[in-house]
Each structure stands twice: as C-alpha cells, then as structure tokens.
Amino acid sequence: MAKPITTLLFDFDGTLLDTNELIIQTFQHVLDKHYPGEYERADILPFLGPTLMDTFGKVNPERAEEHIAEYRAWNIAHHDDLAYEFDGVSETLRLLKAAGMKMAIVSTKRKDMIERGLGLLDVEGVFDVVIGIDDVTNPKPDPEPIVLALEKLGATAEEALMIGDNYHDIEGGKNAGVRTAAVAWSIKGESFLQTYQPDYMLHHISDMLKIVKGEPV
C-alpha cells in the first residue's frame, strides 16, 4: 500500500505561475531579431520547459550564450507585467502548508527568477526549499534536483509527489522514484501529458487538497 503523501515538489513556470506569454514573447523577441521569419509561435511552444542552453544550443550553438543573455535581459524587464498566478494557487498552497505538508519548488529556471516570481504570489513562508537550475549539475528530467529537494526537506521518495506542467516533471519524478501529477492547464495540453502516464491529473490546483487526503480527483 502506498504511503500517505507528506511532501509536495512543485515545478514553477506553467504550474503555479502563468509565465507562458512572458516566455513566448521573450523567445519571439530574440528569435525575430536574429532569425526573422523562421520561428512562428507554434515553433516556440516546444521551447517551454527545457533549459535555455538546451534550446538555444539547438538553435545556434555558436551564439547560444549571446542569445541567453538577450533572453534574460528582455525577460527580466517584462517579467512582472506578463506573469500571473494561476487560479487559486496562493490560497491552495497556504492550505496545503497549514495541513502540514513539506513543500519545495523544483524548477529549471534560475533561483533569483524563481524568487522574483514567488513575489507575485501570496505564499510567503510556504516553501521550505527552492531548487533552481543553479543548484544542480543535471536539471529535470534527471532525478538530481528532485533528490536534492528531498534531502533538504528530510523526506523520502515514497512519501513525495512531483507536480508539473511538462514531461520533464513527470519523467524526472519517475526517475527519482516519486509519484507524479500533471496539470491540465499546461500549455502543452492534457492529452500530451497523459502520454507520460502521471499518477494524477489536476484540473484545478485545489485538486491537491483531495490528493493529500487520499481522496480521488
């Protein structure tokens, strides 16, 4: 019988904070400048989730560092105007914390930008641990960041759940031996995420309140 869930590991972008439009417009800014007409909006969607080095390394490995610097500069300048909380996130996270859950962010973005995004949510004191790409050598879907979060939380894989909006989160969770939940509000779509066979599919963040009680969603 599965152990009760006591530990929640959340992805950030696209899961708790709606940064989809911010990310798409940032990519459009860089790509339209250097490769006009080559990348439509639909071509950019696969870039949401992987690291910037993964993406720009495929676009142009010789100029990847330059493109990443331009990306970050535009993204920071427009972050607070284009990022929004998904419905019910702050309230639900506070309720989960009040219920005694151990909670962490496990993201592929830089820690300073995670902290900036957290500032747009009403979740002060909710997260015990924040893991960004600068904390690890191998980002999701490698299990390293999830294992690191569990270590810092003093939790085991058997009692943990990884929640995210992309296949990196589901595969990373499986690689780390934790249960997984996908979010149906992912820009990638529910049917895409179902192909990775998460243990749960959330249709609203408040579904988490049932999951941690062992109730069906």
List the helices and strands and how they pair.
Layout: E1 7-10, E2 17-18, H1 20-34, H2 41-44, H3 52-59, H4 64-82, E3 84-85, H5 89-98, E4 102-106, H6 111-118, E5 129-131, H7 144-153, E6 160-164, H8 167-176, E7 179-183, H9 190-194, E8 200-202, H10 207-211
Parallel strand pairs: 1-4, 1-6, 4-5, 6-7, 7-8
Antiparallel strand pairs: 2-3
Summarize the structure.
The protein is of the alpha/beta class and 217 residues long. 43% of the residues lie in helices and 13% in strands.
Features:
single chain, 217 residues, alpha/beta, 10 helices, 8 strands, 43% helix
Descriptive account of the structure:
This protein is an alpha/beta fold and 217 residues long. It is 43% helix and 13% strand. A six-stranded parallel sheet has the order 5-4-1-6-7-8, sandwiched between helices. A two-stranded antiparallel sheet has the order 2-3. Strand 4, helix 6 (111-118) and strand 5 (129-131) form a beta-alpha-beta unit. The longest helix is centred in the middle third of the chain and has 19 residues, at 64-82.
- End-to-end separation in angstroms reads 19 Å
Number of helices: 10
Report Rg. Answer: 17 Å
Shape: globular
Unreliable stretches covering 5 or more consecutive residues: none
Structural class: alpha/beta
Number of strands: 8
